[in-house]
Write a sequence for this structure.
């Protein structure tokens, strides 16, 4: 058995019941195989892959809080600090009932390579809780966030670990978390990103992941001599990433005809109305069933179905494993040209393989959605110099970072004989920088 296969087997054995983590490790290690083969003796001796797949530390804690009826509730909190070879741990917090240690580890592992790809000095981490903010009052969300931070604060810091938002953690949650950190530490530090603009947030951070996804997609298509203008797109999700992906796609001259949430999906042949979507999701925090009230020509469907619509480009922006082999077959049958991932690991391994085999241009999450964390790092830079940059300055830097990611991934793939494989290219480019730093820093 080769080194890569040995380490995959070891990860599966040592981390039972964590299928998403196994999936993320397999995807990365199998695509960097040519690099590992070239350096096998050195990497084996230094146990590079064993160290890379074992987090620096994983923290699990109790989060008790009181609901509006006076009942005490208990949730589980997590922070996985995966790798700090190139900078302080950086990665979002996810609040969703499906959260468990395996999901946080898959996200933290992916984050190592994504953060490396941005070319900014940030290591990989991720955290969250099985708390569900849906249907909770603002007071309940605040009570939960304050309790969560009362434990988390001792593990994070502006030079140690800087969390941000993710599913279920937006501006409201970051505000409550930051307030509690400041109160406990008595320090105004850049310990969270995605903050509000009045207290250290960066312009364009809210839009960054969605905008970055479209800058990446535009450049990747350009590399393949295709113009994004005039193309029809499918977007899944209706949260932070989806909303701003749709907005930027429209600005670039494409038309997005779908979006979805965890109960159903919308088809709007005239193009999704972003303002209506923002009103429903960001203001009312309501279901997508409301969309038809704003756009009578649209259709609402219960359940899944976004990937059955005919389009040129698919942008999954909801959650992991939301695009499976059957969906990939439907997309290919409908002539899709490109799939670029806004969510983290939205395509199953089988779906990714099928799309690539059928000539679909495939932009993997860790490259395509890196704009969010990149802009978080820009927020840290602004906080460190106690200045705020203009929207245009942040947006221009974001765009340049996404363009560089496309070309760095492309060149890495070519160097290892895998031209056009942007999954391998992203993994290799991200991996090489981290491994170089790990080797330089000795056995730690
Ligand atoms: P949000 O919570 O803002 O939105 C998530 C959207 O996906 C919602 O529409 C939600 O539906 C839907 N969704 C969530 N879970 C499921 C599920 N199990 N089944 C079906 N639909 C689901 O999160 P974000 O937009 O911030 O995150 C979306 C994805 O992008 C995640 O994979 C996240 O890790 C990734 N990402 C986010 C970044 C960011 O900066 N925010 C950065 C990089 C990646 P509903 O409204 O019903 O809850």
């Amino acid at each position: 058995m080769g080194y890569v296969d040995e380490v995959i087997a070891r990860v599966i054995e040592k981390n039972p019941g964590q299928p998403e983590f196994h999936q993320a490790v397999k995807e990365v290690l199998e695509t960097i195989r040519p690099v590992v083969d070239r350096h096998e003796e050195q990497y084996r001796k230094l146990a590079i892959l064993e160290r890379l797949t074992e987090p620096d530390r994983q923290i699990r804690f109790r989060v008790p809080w009181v609901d509006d009826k006076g009942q005490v509730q208990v949730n589980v909190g997590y922070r996985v600090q995966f790798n700090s070879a190139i900078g302080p741990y950086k990665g979002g917090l996810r609040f969703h009932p499906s959260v468990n240690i395996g999901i946080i580890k898959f996200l933290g592992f992916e984050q190592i390579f994504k953060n490396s790809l941005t070319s900014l000095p940030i290591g990989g981490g991720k955290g969250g809780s099985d708390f569900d903010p849906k249907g909770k009052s603002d007071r309940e969300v605040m009570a939960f966030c304050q309790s969560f931070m009362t434990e988390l604060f001792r593990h994070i810091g502006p030079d140690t670990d800087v969390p941000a938002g993710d599913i279920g953690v937006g501006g409201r949650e970051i505000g409550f978390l930051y307030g509690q950190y400041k109160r406990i530490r008595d320090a105004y530090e850049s310990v969270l990103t995605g903050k509000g603009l009045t207290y250290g947030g960066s312009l364009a951070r809210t839009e960054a992941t969605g905008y970055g996804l479209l800058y990446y997609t535009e450049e990747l298509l350009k590399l393949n001599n295709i113009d994004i203008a005039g193309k029809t797109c499918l977007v899944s999700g209706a949260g932070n990433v989806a909303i701003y992906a749709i907005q930027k796609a429209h600005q670039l001259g494409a038309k997005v005809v779908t979006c979805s949430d965890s109960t159903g999906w919308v088809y709007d042949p005239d193009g999704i109305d972003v303002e209506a979507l923002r009103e429903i999701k960001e203001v009312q925090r309501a279901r997508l069933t409301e969309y038809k009230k704003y756009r009578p020509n649209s259709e609402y469907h219960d359940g899944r179905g976004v990937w059955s619509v005919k389009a040129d480009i698919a942008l999954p922006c909801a959650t992991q494993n939301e695009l499976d082999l059957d969906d990939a077959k439907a997309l290919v049958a409908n002539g899709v040209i490109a799939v670029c991932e806004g969510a983290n690991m939205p395509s199953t391994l089988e779906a990714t393989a099928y799309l690539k085999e059928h000539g679909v241009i495939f932009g993997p999450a860790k490259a395509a959605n890196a704009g969010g964390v990149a802009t978080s790092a820009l927020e840290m830079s602004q906080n460190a110099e106690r200045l705020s940059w203009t929207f245009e300055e942040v947006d221009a830097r974001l765009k340049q970072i996404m363009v560089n990611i496309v070309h760095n991934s492309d060149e890495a793939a070519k160097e290892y004989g895998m031209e056009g494989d942007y999954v391998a290219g992203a993994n290799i480019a991200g991996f090489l920088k981290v491994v170089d730093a790990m080797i330089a820093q000795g056995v730690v």
The radius of gyration is 21 Å.
